[in-house]
Specification:
Length: 418
């Protein structure tokens, strides 16, 4: 989930899947790059301020090991500018943004990320549901770029990309050691152009999959009223349009009074925290939906908004390894309050919250600020949510167009007497 500073809107305000940025030396470079002695002097002044803060926090004492000489930064800068074999291909902006990316990566958290202006705009496009690319969400699993969710009817899915595929190369260039943002920037590109992903699926041999990029316009909520009286709501993301579309779906559900409801969160990588809370509140009329645990042991709970319009409709929630973040919050709340039966496979396991801040020049930073827990206190990070009923969707099933998870949901709801 994501929280956006200065924009108290539904912007992944707190986000759970995937993606982040950073600020530290931004003030130093405000108004342009300060190179030469003037810039170094400015940086030194900033360092003294930080050191003073550290001293105050430690009773006025700073150990020798904790004292930093920021001249080292400029030594590295000068060495690269002078000695790098292809120095003419590297700009000051490359060095500057690269240093900020490294600063964010130094905390060792894959979701704390600095985004350049271009990456920040791409991220905003993602939230708006419109961009050019292949139509798939990617994340980092065991230091390997992994497909979290190919979006329905998008180029990636049509080409055969599946949730859980490991991406080892893009157009023949290895992804090992690259951040998620760097891999995404390589995968994206203008519509009608092609990109080749080298993927490994399970224990199979590597394969190349060629995908033709397109304009990706995604409505995050799709609905279907089946002839057998079961209403299906598929939620692909928790984006800008999700809450409005879901509210329309709820009104339609109440009007048609179905026998049961299937909420399909498979391959949903997450999004706005507040949206997941408001959606869960359609089943849970009171009590906390999710709790955040911050680094100072402060805890913050998000209570139900109290609507509860769907609380009496038998519900099955479908999840898989591509269900992450806000998806897990929604599924976890319905599981803990026994408002739904969870069917499918163990979810992705993203139990952290990111804050998104806009920076100078159009850049942005996502910083992990908290861990989240289900209403019952379950911390799902890296372990995921275990469904009430485990049903696997195998490669053979997918190849044959079979969906045993969805069929199990139908079986459960058709047994319900209403």
């Amino acid at each position: 989930m994501l929280k956006i500073k200065g924009i108290e809107k539904k912007c992944w305000r707190k986000m759970g899947l995937g993606l982040s940025a950073l600020v530290l030396i931004a003030a130093i470079f405000a108004g342009g790059f300060y190179l030469g002695q003037g810039g170094r002097s400015h940086l030194s002044q900033g360092n003294r301020i930080l050191a003073y803060s550290d001293e105050a926090a430690n009773g006025g004492k700073v150990s020798a090991a904790d004292q930093l000489d920021f001249n080292l930064y400029w030594e590295v800068w000068d060495s690269l500018k002078t000695n790098y074999v292809d120095k003419n291909k590297v700009t000051d902006k490359d060095l500057f943004y690269g240093s900020l990316k490294g600063l964010a990566e130094s905390v060792g958290d894959p979701y704390t990320v600095f985004m350049t202006p271009k990456e920040s705009q791409q991220f905003a496009d993602d939230l708006a549901g419109t961009f050019e690319g292949i139509g798939a969400e990617v994340g980092m699993r065991n230091d390997i770029t992994t497909i979290i969710s190919p979006l329905d009817d998008m180029p990636a899915q049509k080409a055969g990309i599946r949730s859980g595929d490991k991406v080892y190369a893009v157009d023949g260039v290895s992804t090992i050691g690259l951040t998620v943002s760097e891999v995404v920037s390589k995968i994206r590109g203008p519509k009608d152009t092609k990109v080749t992903l080298t993927i490994i699926r399970g224990k199979e041999k590597p394969r190349d999959i060629v995908i033709t990029r397109s304009i990706i316009i995604v409505k995050s909520v799709k609905t279907e009223m089946r002839a057998d009286g079961i209403y299906v709501v598929r939620v692909s993301n928790f984006n800008n349009d999700t809450e409005e579309l879901f509210n329309k779906a709820v009104k339609d559900i109440l009007l048609k009074n179905p026998k049961g409801l299937i909420l399909d969160l498979r391959n949903n990588p997450g999004g706005y925290l507040e949206t997941s809370v408001n959606m869960a509140s359609e089943w849970v009329s009171e009590g906390p939906i999710v709790a955040e645990q911050f680094n100072n042991n402060r805890r913050n709970e998000y209570p139900s908004t109290g609507s509860g319009r769907l609380k009496n409709i038998p519900t099955v929630v479908l999840v898989n390894q591509g269900s992450a973040s806000a998806s897990e919050i929604l599924a976890g709340a319905l599981r803990d309050y026994k408002k739904a039966t969870i069917v499918g496979e163990t979810t992705y396991g993203k139990g952290s919250v990111q804050s998104l801040s806009d920076l100078s020049g159009g850049a942005a930073i996502k910083v992990t600020i908290a861990k989240w827990l289900t209403p019952a206190g379950d911390f799902i990070n890296e372990k995921g949510l275990t469904p009430n009923i485990e049903v696997k969707l195998t490669t053979e099933d997918a190849d044959k167009g079979l969906d045993p998870q969805f069929n199990k949901a139908l079986e459960i709801l058709k047994k319900v007497k209403k």
